[in-house]
Structures are given as C-alpha cells and as structure tokens.
Amino acid sequence: MKHRDELARIISQETGRPCAKQQARMWLRADCFHLHAGWVRKQYGETIPVDGPFLNYTLREPVGVVGAIVPWNFPLQTAAWKVAPALACGCSVVLKPSELTP
Fold this sequence. Notes:
Elements: H1 4-15, H2 19-40, E1 65-70, H3 75-88, E2 92-97
Parallel strand pairs: 1-2
C-alpha cells in the first residue's frame, strides 16, 4: 500500500493504539477489498435455454443500498468487512459508525 504509514499514523492518533500495530493490521483492510474484488470475477451463471425465436440472457443487477453499522472497536476493519462485499456486488453503502468512535 502506497500510503500505509500515513494511514497507520492517523488511525493511531485517533484510536490511541500503537502505530506499529496499526501498520501490521493495514494489510488486513486492503486484503479484504482485494479478496472481494477477486470473487466478482469468479461468479458464473447459466442462462436457461428456451425454445423458439426468443432473446434469452442473464442480467446481474445490484440489490440496492446496503446499510452498515460498525462498532466503536476496530471501526476501520469492521467497515472494510461490510463495505467491500457490497461494493463488489455493485451496491451503494451507507456506513454509520458508532458515536463512540473517535
């Protein structure tokens, strides 16, 4: 990650956790997005054949808006676990962190 050290420093200042621990956990957040982006390319579906002169196809559409509420502890990591799969499926996300999150 290009800005890993900078992000870890900012999160460390906000949460009070040691910067070294934040740097070690930074790859978990990025890996979550990478994992779900990879799964999108592996989803295959079959179009059921029909008889006659019909156009038959499979259309994938997002479900809609996803509401995600994250707790005060591990707010970035928990948000990544909720936001990454929703964005990978094409949905928009409304993220509500806890009011206790710094």
